[in-house]
Design the sequence.
């Protein structure tokens, strides 16, 4: 990579609530209760991002979506060595935890408008507890980038625009991948241990302000249910079982050449009886229901 274009590595994280609030400088539990920090999976993703940024001589940016409670998690990444952090707020409900499509749309708009198109996006393999575990796939589609998920190792090739990855397969097997940039990758928890921040870095991160970007997401389209009814298959054209020309079809229906019962010979009758006689043949062949009048 050249200095003219420093690679941009973005790590998308989410904050986890902890039952106790612990001061990072002395490790003492504070009485105000729970705190927000990086989970184990996201700490792995941040460490991978810092390593790739060092190998490619780029910069690592850590972003999170949520309210001010997510600032503590971003300060952990900032103290570990992230070049920049960004907290994204969106007006769309459910972004980040429940709606993976909305999260991908918001991240796409925020990253491109703030930093430009990223060269590499990293996130934890289990990014959220529900629908947002597909975030890496959705981001890859929106960025038009290569997608690789469930990685155990991720390293950069010197002077190249590709990454080398190791992915877990079934039955204890492993798969070596070559991932061209730009790419969106997700890493498994436990694949890396986040480096310990120094005391000066922890102090600076604690005093630093966290930039906030508000993204006004468009409301999701509403699907309205008009009516509910039983399934009715569409009508279709079936091939005729006999002659296709009108004359041959009529001859088949009235059976003029079939030997008939002598009791059904010519006789004086009203207008209803000839009609019944004409309909009796198609009813007998199954062309008409038996109760057709």
Sequence:
């Amino acid at each position: 990579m050249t200095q003219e274009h420093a690679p941009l590595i973005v790590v998308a994280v989410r904050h986890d609530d902890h039952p106790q609030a612990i001061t990072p400088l002395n490790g003492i539990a504070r009485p105000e209760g729970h705190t927000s920090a990086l989970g184990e999976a996201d700490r792995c993703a941040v460490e991978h991002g810092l390593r790739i940024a060092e190998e490619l001589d780029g910069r690592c940016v850590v972003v999170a979506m949520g309210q001010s409670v997510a600032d503590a998690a971003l300060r952990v990444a900032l103290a570990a060595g992230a070049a920049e952090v960004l907290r994204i707020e969106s007006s769309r409900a459910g972004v980040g935890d429940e709606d993976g499509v909305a999260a991908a749309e918001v991240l796409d708009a925020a990253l491109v408008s703030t930093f430009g198109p990223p060269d590499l996006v990293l996130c934890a393999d289990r990014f959220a507890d529900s629908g947002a575990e597909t975030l890496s796939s959705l981001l890859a589609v929106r960025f038009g980038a290569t997608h690789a998920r469930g990685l155990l190792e991720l390293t950069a090739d010197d002077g190249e625009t590709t990454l080398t990855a190791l992915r877990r397969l079934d039955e204890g097997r492993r798969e070596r991948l070559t991932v061209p940039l730009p790419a969106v990758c997700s890493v498994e928890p436990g694949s890396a241990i986040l480096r310990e921040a120094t005391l000066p870095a922890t102090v600076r991160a604690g005093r630093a302000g966290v930039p906030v970007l508000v993204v006004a997401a468009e409301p999701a389209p509403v699907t309205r249910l008009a009516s509910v009814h039983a399934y009715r298959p569409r009508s279709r054209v079936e091939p005729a079982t006999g002659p296709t020309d009108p004359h041959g079809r009529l001859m088949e229906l009235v059976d003029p050449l079939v030997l008939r019962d002598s009791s059904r010979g010519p006789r004086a009758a009203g207008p209803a009886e000839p009609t019944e006689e004409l309909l009796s043949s198609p009813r007998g062949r199954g062309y008409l229901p038996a109760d057709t009048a």
Observations:
- The chain has two domains: 8-215, 246-285.
- Residues 127-132 have pLDDT under 50 and may be disordered.
- The radius of gyration is 35 Å.
- Residues 40-56 form the longest helix (17 residues).
